[in-house]
Design brief:
By secondary structure, this protein is α+β, with helices and mostly antiparallel strands. 45% of the residues lie in helices and 12% in strands.
Length: 784
């Protein structure tokens, strides 16, 4: 049997048990199959076909000596396939009840679910001599198992070159033992179609019963194959000595890498390469097929960077110092390779629906824009972090891009998610306006009407601090939400009323207490716990100007996301949400936002506008009840957050990057809150949903910390270094004031005198590391 690495490939490779195991255990295969099924569920047929095209594919029925997928060169393997599509019953149930009891009797050696998730594929040996075509064997097996009643019988598998897409191991019921059906020994004289078989006979094709012709290695004078004066055979021996002999399961990838390294040295000739390199226990024709496949790909005249330094380090490159230095400089200064396209992991509902309609450049910005919106809807949930401190779903997110890059996509998300809250806010605002009208109409000696304390959740970007705190109190622990279409608008609101509210926003992200106290009786007094979500859009310059101070802790609390510059690009087309997607979003909104009016809401906003002020309380149900708070066990995400934190800490230490070390802690908190939102996307959380959340949050945290470092990493490092230099100057002053030979007590005395708070032991360690002093006894030192 043979397989194609991609369905679009023209050349095939030999299939054996190790390769099949590698394919069905591949994480890439699992991701692409899941993507294909998700696209199919969303009626995205183009995405489904594209995902399928990325899967490897196996030819069970045919094979060729030169490993090319050409109909006139394929020969029978003695196997055939049966496909049952669009099954009306559970695929596993049909297999267990109908197929599995008869697998030995009917010579079925393989069975798995198709990539669509709705079909069953069987691989069987042609066991009846009187059935000499693929079609006849397929019809016989389908009739024996009576499979037509369970779905559509796909009859297109009657061709030798028919491909079977690879699916992950979890979708296999029965994995075929490839070694028992060697490609050198076709089992039966099975034909694809009689007409095709006749054409091959007339053309003088080899009989299907004949074994594939044995391919012999090319005769090569290995002693005469040289590279810059050195024997290539010696270079190969040194390569194997340095990198080791591959073990079972590693040989395929090891050999592929070796071919790519030596292809330039051996004229990109597949036969020469296959003859020179060791076979590592595999047949020569199998290795030759690998070499043919690799040498057909694009090639450069340069070696890989790793292999080039291998040649230099082992003396196989020219000994001329000037030539070597020029070559080294070229490799050291080479341009970095293009990064691989990012693959978004499976997403929770709501995230998945909105991301599916977004163009590629907008998928990550959509996720970041959804976080404060969904955080507002999930205000009722709370969870304990590592430190057992209670957290809610508070987010300050910023989407930035040059002008005209499509930042207004945010409105597409707000309407289906916040429409219920907007309706309640409008009715509550009318009730508050009536209260203020009545209050202003009262005489000096008349008693003020009772304050209704209406709940308004959506606040404008420009508001006064007393109004903000009063509304926060009236919302009783539920989040308020603000959207600023431009960062400048929010900056104006931050200074509204002559008060800088930046301290208040930092407290709001931490859900801390904040308040004010004035002698005036006409303003808000007291302290209230803040729950707030902010979504802003703006240009890069606006963002940098607004967040000038990187040391006050605000930039570490904000999640930044950039929309790639759309200048001179084609228009990015958005899709429409399907009816099924809108139903999924609606279920989420109804499940989260089930706050109820004290009596049923029978009037629309338009009807309420016609109601007299004096009749408003009786006619319009403006007051509603908040749902109780719920506490969620988030312990399943802790391990992943700790792994992320540990990885970033090690990387920050290796890079001496203080900004990365600072950002990692807050990024983990944002990831924790994102996971808390995700738990509300399903009605019930199982192990499957927990894995989706973990993979999604880990992927997002990597994006978030790199985005923050891109914007503010250099600036934060410079400011920290400047602060550190001031401290170092103080330490230098302590050292300068000490005698040539001094003791630890002298350091303590000078630190007290100069106001330096650093521990004396730390100063000693630093000075020793910088080779400024040396130890000459117990707590006794000498300047160098």
């Amino acid at each position: 049997m043979q397989y194609l690495k991609r369905v679009t490939d023209k050349s095939a490779c030999l299939l054996d048990d190790a390769v099949l195991a590698m394919l069905i255990d591949s994480a890439t295969v699992e991701v692409n199959v899941n993507l294909a099924r998700r696209c199919l569920a969303e009626d995205n047929l183009d995405g489904y076909r594209k995902a399928k095209s990325l899967l490897p594919a196996i030819m069970w029925c045919g094979q060729s000596a030169d490993f090319e997928r050409k109909a006139d060169k394929l020969k029978a393997t003695g196997l055939y396939m049966v496909d049952i599509d669009h099954m009306t019953e559970n695929v596993e149930k049909v297999y267990r009840e109908v197929v599995e009891p008869r697998t030995q009797e009917l010579f079925i050696i393989g069975a798995h679910i198709t990539p669509s998730g709705k079909g069953l594929r069987l691989i069987a040996v042609a066991c009846k001599q009187e059935l000499n075509t693929l079609q006849a064997n397929m019809d016989w097996l389908v009739d024996e198992l009576k499979l037509k009643q369970y779905g559509d019988y796909d009859t297109v598998c009657r061709d030798y070159s028919r491909l079977s897409f690879v699916v992950p191991r979890s979708d296999w019921f029965l994995v075929p033992p490839i070694a028992d059906y060697s490609h050198n020994s076709p089992l039966h004289n099975i034909q694809a179609e009689e007409e095709v078989a006749e054409e091959r006979s007339e053309a003088g094709a080899v009989s299907a019963n004949e074994a594939v012709a044995e391919v012999k290695p090319k005769e090569v004078d290995k002693e005469g194959v040289l590279f810059k004066g050195a024997k290539v055979g010696d270079i190969i021996d040194k390569y194997v000595e340095q990198y080791g002999v591959p073990s079972a399961g590693e040989r395929h990838a090891y050999y592929n890498n070796m071919v790519r390294n030596f292809r330039n040295m051996l004229d990109n000739d597949p036969e020469l390469i296959a003859s020179m390199l060791p076979l590592f226990g595999k047949p020569y024709e199998y290795r030759l097929s690998q070499c043919k496949s690799i040498t057909k790909t694009n090639n450069t005249s340069r070696f890989s960077k790793e292999f080039f330094f291998f040649l230099v380090d082992n003396g196989f490159y020219p000994t001329d110092k000037k030539s070597k230095n020029l070559a080294l400089k070229e490799y050291i200064e080479e341009e970095p390779e293009e990064p691989a396209p990012d693959v978004i992991p499976p997403l929770p509902p709501v995230f998945r629906e909105f991301v599916s309609i977004a163009p590629p450049d907008f998928k990550l910005p959509v996720i970041n824009a959804l976080m404060p919106l969904m955080g507002t809807l999930t205000s009722y949930v709370r969870a304990n972090y590592f430190d057992h401190r209670e957290h809610s779903t508070s987010f300050f997110n910023v989407i930035y891009a040059p002008a005209g890059s499509g930042k207004s996509f945010v409105f597409k998300l707000m309407e289906p998610l916040l429409s219920n809250i907007e309706l309640r806010d409008e009715i509550a605002t009318m009730r508050e306006a009536i209260y203020l009208n009545v209050k202003s109409a009262k005489g000096a000696n008349e008693k003020d009407p009772k304050d209704p304390h209406v709940s308004v959740r959506i606040m404008p970007a420009i508001n006064s601090q007393p109004e903000f705190l009063q509304k926060m109190r009236d919302n009783k622990g539920y989040h308020m939400f603000t959207f600023a279409e431009e960062v400048d608008t929010f900056a104006k609101g931050q200074r509204a009323g002559g008060v800088d509210k930046s301290d208040m926003y930092r407290v709001a992200w931490d859900n801390g207490l904040y308040g004010q106290s004035f002698k005036s009786a006409n303003t808000f007094k007291g302290r209230v716990k803040l729950f707030y979500n902010i979504l802003m859009t703006g240009t890069p310059n606006q963002v940098r100007n607004y967040y000038k101070n990187t040391e006050n802790g605000m930039v570490t609390r904000v999640a930044f996301c950039e929309i790639p510059n759309q200048e001179f690009r084609e228009y990015q087309s958005w899709k429409q949400l399907s009816r099924k997607q809108l139903e999924t979003i609606g279920k989420f909104v109804n499940r989260c936002d089930n706050n109820t009016y004290t009596r049923p809401l029978d009037y629309s906003v338009e009807d309420a506008l016609e109601v007299e002020e004096k009749d408003f309380d009786e006619a319009v149900p403006w007051n509603y009840q908040f749902r109780p708070f719920e506490y969620v066990d988030m312990s399943f995400i802790f391990k992943s957050l700790l792994e992320f934190d540990r990885k970033q800490r090690v990387q920050a230490s290796a890079e001496n990057n203080m900004a990365r070390d600072t950002f990692r802690r807050r990024t983990a908190v944002k990831g924790f809150r994102l996971a808390l939102i995700c738990t509300q996307c399903w009605k019930k959380i199982t192990k499957k949903e927990e894995k989706i959340i973990i993979d999604f949050v880990k992927w997002w945290m990597e994006k978030d910390i790199e985005e923050s470092l891109k914007l503010f990493g250099d600036k934060m490092n410079d400011e920290m270094q400047e602060s550190l230099n001031v401290h170092n100057n103080k330490r230098a002053g302590v050292l300068a004031s000490l005698p040539t030979v001094f003791e630890k007590s002298d350091i303590v005395a000078q630190c007290l005198k100069q106001g330096v708070k650093t521990n004396a032991r730390q100063l000693v360690c630093r000075w020793k590391k910088d080779k400024l002093i040396e130890s000459i006894g117990d707590n006794k030192y000498k300047k160098l």
